[in-house]
Amino acid sequence: MTTTEQILCRAEALRAQFADLGGQVVNADVLQPAETLLDLYGEDIRARAYVTSDPLRGEIMLRPDFTVPVVQMHMETFAEPARYTYSGAVYRKQEHDASRANEYIQVGYEVFDGQDIAGADAEVFAAISKAVEGLPLRSATGDIGLLTAAISGLKTSDARKAALLRHLWRPRRFKSLLDRFCGRTPTPKFRTKLLAADDPFEGAWADISLRSRSEVNARIEALRDDAKTPAIGAEERDLLDAILGLQETLPNVMSALRDIAVDLPAIAGAVETLARRTEALASHGVDVNALRFEGSYGRTNMEYYDGFVFGFYSTVRADLPPIATGGRYDALTAQLGAGRAVPAVGAVIRPDLLLAVEEGL
Predict the structure, then answer these.
(1) Which of 34, 124, 181, 275 has the fewest CB atoms lying closer than 10 Å?
(2) In terms of pTM, does the model score above 0.85?
(3) Is 317 annotated for ligand binding?
(4) Highest mean pLDDT among 31-35, 75-79, 177-181, 222-226
(5) Is 106 annotated as a binding residue?
(6) What are the boundaries of the signal sequence (predicted)?
(7) Residue 193: which domain range?
C-alpha cells in the first residue's frame, strides 16, 4: 500500500529531475483568488474547485492547479526563456466518482520560450517521457491549434465559428451545434415560432429573469441573423470530421493532414507546425514512428490548452486517471498578462499514480 511518505519522496525526486533540466523551483499559495479563475473558466470552475469566502481577501479557492499561479508569477517578470518546476497538493471536487482523490500531489515542469516553440514542446514531452520511462504506459498526443485552424477556416459566419470555438471543449454541445449549422438537425419549433413573431415580447414582463429586455432582444436578433446564414457545406463537414477522427501514428497522420489541407487550406500552417514538432520530438529521442496522434485528444479536460496536448495512461490499470498530462497554453499567458502573450508549454505528473502503476507490476 502506497504511503504518503512514499508519494512525497517520489514527488521530490521528480522535481529534482526537472530542476536538473533547468527548472527553477517555485511554489504557489494554497489559497488562490477565485476571481482570476472565475474570469478564466466562468462559473463552471465552481463545480470542480473548493470555494470559500475570506473577510479580507473576498472569494478564494483551494489551489486547483499550479499552472495559473505560475503563469501569473512569470508574467510579472517576463524573463525569457524561463523554466520552472514545483510540487504540492492540488484540490479537485469529485462529484461523480468517489473513488478518485479530491486532494493529491502534483509535480510540474513549465517552459516559457518563444525562440523555439517546436523545440519547447518536444522538450517538455521528452522530460515527462523520461520521468515515466520503463513503466507500462501508453502516450497520446493531439493539437488543439489544428482544430481551431480548421474551424476558423470554415465558410460560415464569424458568429457560428465563435460558437464552435467556444464549445470545442464540450464535445456533445459542439456536435449539436455543428449538426445544426450543417442543417443536419431541424431548428426547434419553439425557436422558429419565436423568430417569426412580430413582437416576441407580447405578454412578457418588463424584464425576463436576470436578463433585461434589451439583452433578450439582442439575442433574438442574433438568432434571426443566424437563421439567414447558409448551412456549412457537406464537404467541409466531412473534412472536419476527418480531422476529429484521426487516430494513427504521427507519420501517417502527417500524410493524411497534408491531403486534407489541399481542400481545407486554413490548416496548412498548423500542419507545418505539427511537422516541425515531429522533427523536434525525434531530435529529443522520441520514437515518432510509434507515437500516437488523436484528432479529438484534449477536448474534455484541457480547457486552457491551445496547441500541442499530450497525456500518459497506464496499460495495466485502466481504472486510473491520466498519469501525466501537458500542453501548450499561449492564450492563457495573454489573458493573465494583460494582452501580452509569452509562448508557454508545460506538464504535470502525479507521483501517487506512478507508484500505483509500479505496485501493479
Answers:
(1) 275
(2) yes
(3) no
(4) 177-181
(5) yes
(6) none
(7) 187-230
